[in-house]
Amino acid sequence: MERYLTSYSQTRPHQALDCKTPDQVYYDNLTTRLTAA
């Protein structure tokens, strides 16, 4: 289960996320929010 979740979040691109991984989307948005604050 852990390998699946790691693959799903860190290495598998998602079409709904503009072919980015969930981790990429999360950390890109986190960086944007931190610099805006």
Provide the structure class.
mainly alpha
Mean pLDDT: 88
The best one-word shape is elongated
* DSSP strand tally: 0
What is the count of helical runs? Answer: 2
- In terms of quaternary structure, what is this? single chain
Summarize the helix and strand pattern as letters. HH
In percent, how helical is the residue content? 55-70%
Q: End-to-end span in angstroms?
A: 36 Å
Largest sheet: none
Can you characterise this structure?
The chain has 37 residues and is an all-alpha fold. It has one domain. It contains two helices and no strands. The protein has helices at residues 2-11, 22-36. This is Transposase (N-terminal).
Q: Mind sketching the topology for me?
A:
Layout lengths: L1 H10 L10 H15 L1
